[in-house]
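User: Sequence in, structure out. Go.
Assistant: Echoing your sequence, followed by the structure tokens.
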Amino acid sequence: MDVHANLIHVGDQDFEEQVLKADTPVIVDFWAAWCGPCRAIAPVYERLSDEYQGKLKFVKMDIDQHQMHAGRLGIQAIPTLMIFNDGKVIAKLVGPHPSRLKNEIDRTLSANGVA
């Protein structure tokens, strides 16, 4: 398994600290091990985590193991990717859309004055 300096796995116990209280924008990939589309987008997500290092923190959260925040955020389909800034959701992408993912990140960061 590759190590990505800008990609971390979080659970319900550290979601608030790592995501909601982060001092940079955070994108969270809500996924599950049994989900084929989740596995399909994972390599793209990992590559983007390297590309956006220092601009956007990349987080993965297994919704089978950590259901509390996924439930609170209304996650109904996976993969769901959400971008948080200052503790608020500023973008949401549902489904495995590798080509749209980078565009959505760029659009969201520039629209929120982060890029």
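User: And one key feature?
Assistant: The longest strand covers residues 88-94.
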